Every structure is written in structure tokens, then in C-alpha cells.
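Ops channel
N.P.: pipeline sanity check, posting one input/output pair.
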């Protein structure tokens, strides 16, 4: 290898280009097992973010099944989930463009099962006892008020006949039919809760006509989050609950609830999507499960009888979307050196097979920055968590006295967590000479219910404190340059970014991706699923309007004193574009350097290749101007006001 070149941090030439990322990367979605076959969905930026169902067969053949222009995605709760199911060589799926349900046999053209474009369907399961689909339906046909959520049955022998099975509450998820077909289990919750705050698990008897008869509550409440009900082969109902502080496994049988495995770790995740899964049955006594401890996910076999947990050795640090049958477990997984992939585990041989990688990027591992878990002190004597990525590029070094600039990365949610899977959008920065701090601030999941509840009533405070304290901790360690600290985040992370830049002065620049600048506007305008989210995170609206305005950056732009770049999808219904536009005008009038990059056709979360490329390169260009370093390669310029 040639001698190491000395060049300023940020100006290093990197093989991890934006063109490479968008051309060679897909997003892996849901997994479904049908006999020995494996089905999954994948979102392809090169096809405008279209979601395609793919089938793998035991001979190794992989086939695309979804014909263009169909796009397998549901908008229930806006975030979707459970968009397809498979039975009898037929795929049933929700099509994004019209939100109608379709049936596709073999490679034939899909046929419509529903006609209304005001009704959305998700969490789809097949009731093979009665030749029907059961799913969550979200009805937007009412002209006023919120959409109505129910669990419905769609008769496959009677075109477009839908029967409401369960109704009356604000939200439903996770319908599951018992092995003998006699009972249906489901989750439900009401405003102001979100599913990680409190849900109820119910079971109802399925009558001769397919309707739900007598039903009863098994577990849960307003301050207990129940996740993923599953029936064992013997008809025992299992579920995950956080009533003991941690999301642990329980079962209901003989009219009582008993713990299956109690550990100080999380077997569940916040239910942002429908049809999420962290465990499944491989036998009458064996559960294949995943759990997280201090931000790292593990795969294990759990004995139903003894509760013993045997870890399965894997190279992965992140595991999700787990599906299990008698002979195989299939899941999404990744590690600091392996991008998210579809992995199949043969349960007899314990061999892992890679079915699909989310990235075909071929970059020497010497360019990959490995995350280092850190714990750091924060407010009130508490400790918070993050992963630190140092700059990494074998071709370059900086002047001996120079410290690297650092991007503090804020995950969305805010009830979510960062991932340790190989993320090329992080390596894009570290291979150019940036350090990255990926923060699991108080309020993040994976560290128990109490840690998750740190954000209650304190969004815009606790998260900001943790991001500031994490960055300053690294400055104090002498690892990064305190005069070149930037902060970036999307959605809820964008709000934390804007708050940190407005109400604190540690960061010198920032990037907000569809971030919230006006909490009151969010409370008034957001969709049903999150309509009361802020009741817990901020306070009841409009009763505590004072707090909403106190913590909304748009009302305090006089406190801003550093450059900002804003990215926004113009069809975003979660965070409407006017919030970014208001912030832009405020910063322009204040005379601060500011840039605004809007994208036609994008919603909440960017999916198109051109958008992702433009956003990455624009953010790099912006930092090069405000932190005064030269770029190794030219990128399309960005209009920066007041620079």
C-alpha cells in the first residue's frame, strides 16, 4: 500500500461514494415462511423505493414475484407492517398506490380483492379454516374525525365481503389464530398510549359463523406494554410483557399467567410497525428468540419447560424480523462489518446461510470504522449510552495536532434505538475523516422501561442533554474537535437536532431531515397513530400550550447562532413541509447560514436513489463550507443563504 497521505479531516478521498450507496443498496423488510420456502420484501431505491416480494426455494433459486408497478406496502398507522401473507401458492398483499388488497397466484398478474381506496389493510394473516384473510383495517372514508381502526375478515369466496370482528378501541394489532382455529388473540390500545406505553392482550372465541363471540382480557393495561402474542403448537398463548421492567416472555394457560424467562434484557421492541416478531416456536418445547443487552442483540434457544436460555453463537450484533418453523429460522441480521442481510439458520445443522444482503458494496474492511460502545455521565447523576465511530481510512492521516470533526447522530422515534449493523451512511462520513457518535439517549428502547420513560414529559430536554453530554464527554477525552461538533437527525431526531442547536451552544452546525420545529403544529396536524404521542413526551395539548411553545425551536430562533441545513419530503404527512419552511425563513431573516433541500414525491423517510444521493452529498458540501475544508471530489453545489 502507498504511504499514508496527510490531509485535513473531512477532505479524505473515500471509496464509499453516494453513487455506490444508492446503486448497490436495498432495504430489507418483512419475512414470511411457507413450508420450506422463504418470502421477503425489499425496497429498492433504484426503482423509486418500490417494495418487491422475493421468494427463495431450497435449491437456492431466488425469484422476484411482484410485477411492476405494484408496490407491496401498507399505510396503516402510516408506518405500515404486515403488508403480505402467503397460502396455497397465493400471495395476498397491500398495494401502496391504492392501498387495496390483491391476490397473486404464481407469476400471474395480481387481482384486486378490495375496491375502496379509503381503506387500508395491514397485519395480514390467512385463516385457512374459513378461507379468509384476517387483518387490521384502517378506514379513512369518514369526512371528519380520525380514521377508524378495526380487525376485519375478508371472505375469499365472496368478492369484497368484509366482516368486522373486533371494534371499539382506537388501535388494534397482532391478530393470531389458535392452532385448532377456535380462538383469535389480538392486541389493542387507546389514546393517549402508544403500544410501548400500554397495550392489552385479548382472546376471543371464533363462532361457527366466523364472528368473535365471548372474549376476555389476558394481560396488559395502560402502563404495561404487551408485544407479539403467539400460540404454541399445543394451543398455549405466549406473549412478551414489560410488567417486570424488561420486555420478557410469559404464557397464559390454565387461567393464569406465568413467566417463561425473566432476565434483565429486552426480548421485545417498540411496535412501530405491524407484524413485528422477535421469537417463534421450533418445537413444542423450543423457542428461537432474540434479545438485546446494552444495545447488542443476541439469538438464543429458550426451553419452554425450564426457562433455560442457550445462546446461539453468531457473528451478528443486530437481529430482527425473526420467523421460525420446525426446521429453520430466518431473520434479518447485521454486524459492524456486515450490512443488514436475510439469514437462514438450519436448526438441525446450526449452519447459517446468507439469502440476501442489503448491500452489494465491495469495500475493503480496512476502510470500515467499528463502533465502540460508550457510557457517559449525564444530568441528575444518570448514565446514558452511545456508539462511537472513529475516523477510518487506511490511505489518510491528519496533522498530528488536528482532532477530527464529529457528527452526533440522533435516531428517530424518539422511542427507538440505534443499530450496530454496518451502515454505509455512517461509513460515508468516517471514511472521509469524520467521527460519528450514535446516541441511545434516555427514552431509547433496549435498556428497560425506566430508561424508556426518561423522556416522559421531557422530550426536548433529556434527549438534548444526553446528546450534548455525549459529545462533550468525547471532547474531554481528547478524541474530537470541540469547535467542529455537528448534530444530525431525522424525524424525531431532527427535532432533537433543532432543539440542541437552538437551546444549547455546544454544536457548531446541524442537519435536520424532516425534523419537527413546531410541536404545536405537530400536535394539530399529525396522523392518528401519533396524535397523542406528545401527551406523554411533552404534556396534554392544548392545556399545556405553554410547554409546547417553550420547547418549539421555531419560537426561539433568536437563540440560534450556527449554520443549519434542512431536508424535507414534500408529501410528508407525519411532519408537514411547512415546518421546515418556517425554520428556513426564520434563519434567513436572522442572517445565519442556512440551506433547504426539498424533494418532490418523498414522504416521511427518503426512499428514492436520487434523493438519498443528493441529501448525502449536500450535507457534506454544507459542512465543507461551514467547517472550511476542501472536498476530495466535486459534488453538486448547494445554495446556502447568508454565507
Amino acid at each position: 500500500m502507498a504511504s499514508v497521505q496527510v490531509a485535513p479531516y473531512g477532505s479524505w478521498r473515500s471509496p464509499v461514494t453516494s453513487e455506490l450507496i444508492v446503486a448497490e443498496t436495498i432495504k430489507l423488510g418483512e419475512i414470511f415462511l411457507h413450508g420450506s420456502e422463504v418470502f421477503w420484501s425489499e425496497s429498492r431505491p433504484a426503482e423509486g423505493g418500490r417494495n418487491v416480494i422475493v421468494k427463495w426455494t431450497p435449491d437456492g433459486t431466488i425469484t422476484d414475484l411482484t410485477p411492476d408497478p405494484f408496490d407491496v406496502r401498507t399505510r396503516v398507522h402510516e408506518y405500515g407492517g404486515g403488508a403480505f401473507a402467503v397460502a396455497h401458492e397465493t400471495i395476498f398483499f397491500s398495494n401502496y398506490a391504492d392501498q387495496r388488497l390483491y391476490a397473486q397466484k404464481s407469476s400471474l398478474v395480481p387481482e384486486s380483492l378490495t375496491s375502496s381506496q379509503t381503506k387500508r389493510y395491514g397485519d395480514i394473516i390467512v385463516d385457512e379454516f374459513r378461507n379468509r384473510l384476517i387483518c387490521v383495517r384502517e378506514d379513512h372514508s369518514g369526512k371528519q374525525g380520525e380514521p377508524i381502526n378495526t380487525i376485519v375478515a375478508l371472505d375469499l369466496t365472496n368478492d369484497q365481503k368484509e366482516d368486522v370482528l373486533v371494534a371499539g378501541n382506537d388501535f388494534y394489532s397482532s391478530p393470531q389464530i389458535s392452532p385448532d382455529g377456535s380462538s383469535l388473540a389480538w392486541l389493542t390500545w387507546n389514546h393517549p398510549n402508544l403500544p410501548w406505553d400500554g397495550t392489552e392482550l385479548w382472546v376471543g372465541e371464533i363462532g361457527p359463523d366466523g364472528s368473535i363471540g365471548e372474549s376476555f382480557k389476558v394481560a396488559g393495561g395502560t402502563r404495561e406494554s404487551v408485544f407479539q402474542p403467539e400460540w404454541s403448537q399445543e394451543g398455549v398463548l405466549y406473549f412478551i410483557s414489560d410488567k417486570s421492567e424488561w420486555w420478557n416472555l410469559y404464557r397464559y394457560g390454565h387461567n393464569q399467567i406465568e413467566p417463561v424467562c425473566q432476565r434483565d434484557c429486552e426480548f421485545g421492541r417498540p411496535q412501530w410497525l405491524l407484524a413485528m416478531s422477535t421469537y417463534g416456536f421450533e418445537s413444542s418445547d423450543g423457542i428461537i428468540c432474540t434479545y438485546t443487552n446494552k444495545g447488542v442483540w443476541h439469538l438464543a434457544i429458550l426451553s419452554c419447560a425450564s426457562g433455560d436460555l442457550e445462546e446461539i453463537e453468531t457473528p451478528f450484533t443486530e437481529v430482527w424480523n425473526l420467523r421460525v418453523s420446525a426446521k429453520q429460522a430466518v431473520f434479518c441480521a447485521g454486524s459492524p462489518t456486515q450490512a443488514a442481510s436475510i439469514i437462514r439458520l438450519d436448526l438441525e445443522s446450526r449452519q447459517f446461510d446468507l439469502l440476501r444482503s442489503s448491500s452489494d458494496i465491495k469495500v475493503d474492511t480496512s476502510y470500515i470504522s467499528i463502533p465502540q460502545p460508550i457510557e457517559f455521565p449525564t444530568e441528575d447523576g444518570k448514565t446514558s449510552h452511545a456508539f462511537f465511530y472513529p475516523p477510518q481510512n487506511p490511505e489518510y492521516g491528519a496533522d498530528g495536532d488536528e482532532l477530527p470533526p464529529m457528527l452526533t447522530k440522533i435516531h428517530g422515534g424518539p422511542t427507538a434505538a440505534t443499530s450496530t449493523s454496518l451502515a454505509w451512511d455512517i461509513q460515508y462520513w468516517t471514511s472521509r475523516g469524520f467521527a460519528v457518535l450514535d446516541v441511545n439517549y434516555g427514552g431509547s428502547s433496549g435498556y428497560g422501561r425506566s430508561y424508556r420513560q426518561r423522556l416522559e414529559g421531557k422530550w426536548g430536554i433529556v434527549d438534548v442533554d444526553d446528546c450534548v453530554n455525549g459529545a462533550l464527554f468525547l471532547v474531554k477525552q481528547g478524541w474530537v474537535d470541540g469547535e467542529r461538533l455537528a448534530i444530525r437527525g431525522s424525524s424525531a431526531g431532527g427535532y432533537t437536532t433543532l432543539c440542541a442547536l437552538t437551546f444549547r451552544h455546544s454544536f457548531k452546525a446541524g442537519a435536520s431531515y424532516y425534523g419537527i420545529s413546531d410541536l404545536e403544529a405537530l400536535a394539530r396536524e399529525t396522523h392518528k397513530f401519533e396524535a397523542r404521542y406528545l401527551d406523554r413526551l411533552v404534556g396534554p395539548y392544548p392545556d399545556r400550550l405553554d410547554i409546547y411553545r417553550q420547547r418549539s425551536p421555531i419560537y426561539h430562533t433568536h437563540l440560534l447562532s450556527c449554520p443549519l441545513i434542512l431536508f424535507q419530503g414534500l408529501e410528508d404527512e407525519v411532519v408537514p413541509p411547512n415546518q421546515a419552511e418556517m425554520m428556513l425563513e426564520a434563519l434567513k431573516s436572522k442572517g445565519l447560514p442556512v440551506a433547504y433541500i426539498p424533494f418532490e414525491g418523498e414522504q416521511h423517510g427518503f426512499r428514492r436513489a436520487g434523493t438519498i444521493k443528493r441529501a448525502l452529498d449536500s450535507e457534506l458540501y454544507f459542512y465543507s463550507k461551514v467547517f472550511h475544508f476542501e472536498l476530495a471530489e466535486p459534488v453538486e453545489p448547494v445554495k446556502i443563504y447568508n454565507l
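N.P.: looks fine end to end. The first helix runs from residue 18 to 23.
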